[in-house]
Amino acid sequence: MDAGGDIKSIRKYALEQPYKEDPPVDHPVARVFQTEYNQVCDVARCPVPYVSICTGIWMGFGVGNSAHGDVRVVTEDTLFAMPENSIGLFPDVGFAHIAAQLPGALGLYLGLTGRRLSSLSDLLYSRLGTHAARAEELPSLRNALVEAPLSRHADKRETLRQLDAVLQQFQARCDPHAPDLAAPELATLQPLIDSCFGPALAHRARGRSAPQALDDIALDLLTIAQTNERPAARQFAVETLETLQKLCPMSMAVTLRHFAAIYQAVHAGGGPLAEVEGVMRQEYALAVRMCGRGDFTEGVRAAVVDKDRNPKWNPANLSDIREEELDAIFAPMPPGKELQLDFLDRRD
């Protein structure tokens, strides 16, 4: 898969045609997300088995175009991350829906921090990857999938079981080259991740705003960094704190509020946010509004234009984020400006 969308182009559109109010669906920025989010929904609802070979850089829309499918084959060359909080956006393409189905609070942790995963053990433990294969065997794997004697079934789960038999053969040959498959680092860190990030998934029920919940995460990490007896735990806490301190405050607040709402919908509440289409409608509102803010153009400038890695966020601190600002970002889109789920069918 690829490394995501062309964020420089989106920045260019936002600068050339700036907007304070929600843009129409034919605005260049809106068209990008109309197209991408329609594809995400198509992948999630694909009526036949959807198989992705996720090798190389696997980020951004590369994740959206694969992770909602049935099979995700990872290799020793796979590098996964959702680093959008570092450019003033948020982890979109429905990753919040995927994150809600990962172990414990792991999804929120990956979404907030943008942590990179590259070991097969972590990719499989996280459930981001469903199968593993050696990169050099990918041509053979593709041929084996194409040539597999599959039977047509009304329920694609029967076909997926047939495909799994092929995929397991390649994973079995992968094991000798990945001795850490049985000892993922994330499994060791899971208790720490859950204790620090887990409470934030219910922050609204606890009477905490998103910025306050982020402060709680930082305080828990600081306590571990200063008092935990295990060096690995202290290192995890210090590195995570250092990462969070560099990210866009508004992006982190949006990410936490969004991921928590999806998590609650998937695990308890149900409703529109429990389904991919409802998630993408919400994310469309978030995406076009975040791209209209100065943080996005500034974050992309610092990351990939000037590459000085020194963005100036506004607001610069979590304490300066007002709840009404977040409410406005999360408000439903006006009629006629929302995500059009038949957008791809209507394009010229």
Automatic annotation (TrEMBL):
Metabolic or biological pathway, per its Swiss-Prot or TrEMBL entry: Amino-acid degradation; L-valine degradation
Major enzyme class: hydrolase
EC number(s) per entry: 3.1.2.4
SUPFAM superfamilies, A to Z: ClpP/crotonase
InterPro entries named in the record: ClpP/crotonase-like_dom_sf, ECH_dom, HIBYL-CoA-H
Biological process (GO), any one: L-valine catabolic process
Reaction(s) the record says it catalyses: 3-hydroxy-2-methylpropanoyl-CoA + H2O = 3-hydroxy-2-methylpropanoate + CoA + H(+)
Keywords, in A-Z order: Hydrolase
Molecular-function GO term, any one: 3-hydroxyisobutyryl-CoA hydrolase activity
Record-linked Gene3D superfamilies: 2-enoyl-CoA Hydratase, Chain A, domain 1
Origin superkingdom: Eukaryota
Span of domain Enoyl-CoA hydratase/isomerase: 3-330
Pfam families, per database record: ECH_2
Family as reported in the entry's similarity comment: Belongs to the enoyl-CoA hydratase/isomerase family.
Function: Hydrolyzes 3-hydroxyisobutyryl-CoA (HIBYL-CoA), a saline catabolite. Has high activity toward isobutyryl-CoA. Could be an isobutyryl-CoA dehydrogenase that functions in valine catabolism.
Name of the protein: 3-hydroxyisobutyryl-CoA hydrolase
Organism the protein comes from: Coccomyxa subellipsoidea (strain C-169) (Green microalga)
